[in-house]
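Example 9 (inverse folding). The structure is encoded as follows.
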């Protein structure tokens, strides 16, 4: 199904677990499909009634509640997403365990060498080679990278302290299309939602960019703000937000120059502010959120056009509520290349 680079190209590209802190490892609730078992998009549909979502959520917690933890995974799709179903952080040696991705070593990712963090979140990388246990031959592995974010706040879950929120994104740059990967995000514990007033949340955004049409992987980061109106819309509350000050880096952490000319046909890369779509049915009574995201550019005639488009998924946490964790996925045509699209998957934890 997937097309990968040739052995020679992969060699050139790649030249340059035990007990751990539980992370997204809860057993699925009855009736919940895991990302590898789900058919179709595996999404949870909202109804747009008061307190319900008009959009779809990824698979995960089957009967979400404001009084319980919620975990969601990327849905399986035809381009390789949704294959990360089990992951956890091991504090003792600062490693990250990821299951269900072929040719990423023994599932244990070490802290990144050239890029150890991005936008305030930790970066981990799979090993470059694995030894054949019989012959000793070195087998080249695919280039996998993971971004892991954990809240600065903690809660008790079954008597054990856990980060209030967490997210993880795992992508690869070794395929000539998007390849296999996934994302997960979770709220540990409860949320209390007000019925009046508004709230603003701010924090860091960091993401991974992969391509369809060429191999390669890039990082991005920015500053994010989200505001919520808890009184209106009557159906699902109003949510707005932006990611600003976006920066781009290659896989080795070198800054990629961006142009201020937002011409989608100009042949140069630019990263405008990301906007959250505003509309009813964005937030549920359980504190979950989803809606569209988009950026804008200009075509050769100077007319404004959509540049990057996608969807964000998030969940609120705490008594305030105090924070929000989420992931967004966007795609666009990359103006640097012919017939190449780029997928950006970014995560965020924002505090009030």
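The amino acid assigned to each position is listed next.
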């Amino acid at each position: 199904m997937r097309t990968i680079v040739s052995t020679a190209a992969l060699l050139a590209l790649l030249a340059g677990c035990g007990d751990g802190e539980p992370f997204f490892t809860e057993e699925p609730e009855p009736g919940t499909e895991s990302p590898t078992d789900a058919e179709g998009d595996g999404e949870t549909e909202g109804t747009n009634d008061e307190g319900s979502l008009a959009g779809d959520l990824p698979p995960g917690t089957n009967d979400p509640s404001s009084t319980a933890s919620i975990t969601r995974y990327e849905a399986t799709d035809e381009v390789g997403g949704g294959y990360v179903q089990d992951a956890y952080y091991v504090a003792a040696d600062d490693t990250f365990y990821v299951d269900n991705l072929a040719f990423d070593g023994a599932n244990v990712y070490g802290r990144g060498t050239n890029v150890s963090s991005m936008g305030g979140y930790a970066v981990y990388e799979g090993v470059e080679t694995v030894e054949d246990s019989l012959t000793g031959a070195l087998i080249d592995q695919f280039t996998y990278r993971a971004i892991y974010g954990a809240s600065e706040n903690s809660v008790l879950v079954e008597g054990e302290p856990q980060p209030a929120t967490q997210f993880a994104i795992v992508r690869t740059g070794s395929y000539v299309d998007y390849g296999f990967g996934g994302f997960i995000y979770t709220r540990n514990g409860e949320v209390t939602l007000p019925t009046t007033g508004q709230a603003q949340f701010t924090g860091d955004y960091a993401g991974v960019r992969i391509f369809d049409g060429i191999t390669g992987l890039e990082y991005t980061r920015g500053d994010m703000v989200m505001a919520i109106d808890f009184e209106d819309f009557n159906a699902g509350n109003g949510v707005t937000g932006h990611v600003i000050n976006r920066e781009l880096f290659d896989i080795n952490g070198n800054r990629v120059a961006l142009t201020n000319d937002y011409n989608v046909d100009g042949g140069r890369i630019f990263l405008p502010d990301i906007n959250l779509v505003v509309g009813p049915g964005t937030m549920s009574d359980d504190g979950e959120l989803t809606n569209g995201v988009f950026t804008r550019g200009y075509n050769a005639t100077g007319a404004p056009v959509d540049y990057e488009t996608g969807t964000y998924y998030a969940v609120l946490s705490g008594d305030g509520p105090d924070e929000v964790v989420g992931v967004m996925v966007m795609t666009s045509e990359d103006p640097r290349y012919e017939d190449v699209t780029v997928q950006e998957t970014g995560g965020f934890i924002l505090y009030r």
